[in-house]
Amino acid sequence: MSQSLPQLPKLRGKKRRRANRREYDPAVDPLLARWAAQRHLAIDEAAKRVGVPASQLRRWIKDHPEMAAAINAGERNADAQVVDALYKRCLGVEFDDDHISRVGEDKDHNPVHIRKIKRRRPPDTQAILFWLKNRLPDQWSDKPTTLTTKEIIARVRTIPALPPKPQDKNSGI
């Protein structure tokens, strides 16, 4: 006495909507891929922006080496910009700024005076520590590394021997 599940009505005339598919354009699509990579967009989001399904974008990346190269170049460019910004923040930076004061009037009779001035942002110690801990972890790590006995012996063996002390003539020996 097994009961069967009721049959679902078949949908007639309703076709599965297919996403926008288009041909690969070697002049445009690598540029779009590089643009998406510079903004660190995921493949799904990049595909939406390019106007194709994510599976098609993945296939293009796999089939066309210039697409993969464009994505890698975009990611490297974005990473370089971040490294440059962190470097500037570590060293401090001088920049131009507008100083607005209420002297005189502009064309709408608002009392405004804009003057260009140079400002200096001092180095950021947190950025400096971040940089040092990541670039020089041996010297700047929060967790000191413990050396094994073999490493200690290897370091001691590399220390040059001290020259013998000259003997004193008055010592009587």
Walkthrough of the structure:
The protein is mostly helical. It is flat. Helix content is 46%, strand content 10%. The chain has a domain at 19-91. The model has no long low-confidence stretch (mean pLDDT 79).
| Helical fraction | 40-55%
Major sheet details:
2 strands, antiparallel
Total of DSSP H or I helical runs spanning 4+ residues: 7
Derived from helix and strand composition plus strand pairing, the structural class reads mainly alpha
Coarse shape: flat
> How are the strands of the biggest sheet laid out side by side?
1-2
Span from first to last CA?
116 Å
The helix/strand order is: HHHHEEHHH
How many DSSP-defined strands? 2
Low-confidence stretches: none
**Chain-averaged pLDDT:** 79
Round the Cα radius of gyration to an integer and report it.
Answer: 34 Å
Into which percentage range does the β-strand content fall?
5-15%
Summarize the structure.
With 173 residues, this protein is mainly α. The chain has a domain at 19-91. It contains 7 helices and 2 strands.
